[in-house]
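User: structure tokens for this one?
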Amino acid sequence: MTLTTPVWPTGSISDALDIGVQTDAPRSVMDVGTLVGIALRHNPKRAHLLVSTVLAKHVPTVPGIALAAGELLGLLVSAAITDSSEPSVDGAGVPRRAHEFGDRLTALVGRLTEETGAVTPDEARSARRDLTALRRDIRTATTPHPDVVTLGYAETATGLGQLVADALTAYYLHSTRHAPAGATPFAGFAEEHSHATDHTLLPTDAEWLRHGGTTILVDDELSTGTTVINTITALHALSPQAHWVVASLIDLRSGADRARFDDLAAGLGTRIDVVCLAAGSITLPADVLPRAGRMIESMPAAAPGPSAGGEVLLLDCTDLAPIRSARFGTRTPADTGLAATIARRVAALLPVAEPDPADRGVLVLGSEEFIALPMLIADELDGLEHDGAELDGAEQDGAAPERGVRFSTSTRSPIATLDQADYPIQSAISFRSHDVTSDGIGVRFAYNLTTARRRFGTVVFLPEPGTDPATLDGPDGVLDAIRRVSDRVVVVLLTASAPSDRTPAP
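Assistant:
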């Protein structure tokens, strides 16, 4: 494994709070510092937040990077299922090529992450070709397992879970905080450190979890593993599983927490394996909560970002196939054909790029739990943008910075912002939620739409399918918030599939 300089080098926040993160190289295919930075959040249960460089949740990210990270995690899960050797919670059975893939992805994160410096169009196209090749190689090395069940955690890991399920060609269901009409809850569990703790499962297939099977649990990070323990305990009581595989981008559990997994497996008479891209440890001072609280209070007020007051365009795609949410369960992979169709319609609305040093290009913004399809749309649009630039001869200006397409999503998690280069959350917008959730209407956020006095010229926003556009408007609505930091907002309207008694066949 190649160790590299973190995207956000160790900063004043981590130093001031004595927070340290270490990589356990034997259990890792990437370095923890490549995958996360540390931010502070407004949460009395946990002061810090691990901000991912590859999840594309809080930080606008090249979509192909997020796709490759999810697919690499899927490869590790596939190997854990296939491996018949002595079970290990530390990721035994990692395929040899996974380390090579991890090194290649590490290099691409460095080449394509905006914080590391300007990327020329030639460099961006070369990196995209390498990224395409990496994803092809990962998929070729992955053994499908269509008989397993994959469960992703809302809200952060709903897209990541879909990527792992698609890599395995497996049934996929994610937990939800939505309360849609006509859906019957199967089970619930708690994420005790989260800003919003309750998770509900709404599968419409009564046979989704079969006795004695293999179930994959996908989350973006493991800190203590308590959420996973709660999940396995609740679901195993309803339908005992022979094998549980826990998959996360990073695993920072202590030795004592890893032992809790061993004890749980022994107590339930099951097997629990854990796989991750990077494993390690995090050290926190005993008084981290009050110290972090004081630091948040002392942070300077966020400077106003570049004000744009842009136009809002509604792109009506309700004539396309209804979108079935994976919160109801699905046996079909995310629809790349549909994503390509929507991307072409979006591209037709984008203006011809003009040199503007303040313009970061195009951001595709998903909405909380609605991540997988928007991420694919962003990747398709990124391909169209690069192909179009090459056809237009834009690469002749080798000194011009590459803007391209980035992807992130809105979130309900309140995070402290600080406008400095070594801190991962530099700006925020807030707005009223538009979806029907169990806890009602609340405040939502989107991060890093502006940074270093730069903004995205166009933001393509994908609300939950079936959303009434009127719920997005108003002085505290999401459209008003986005248009204040962008020249143009394209809102993609999609039709939602109603919950049904049967999931679609592959």
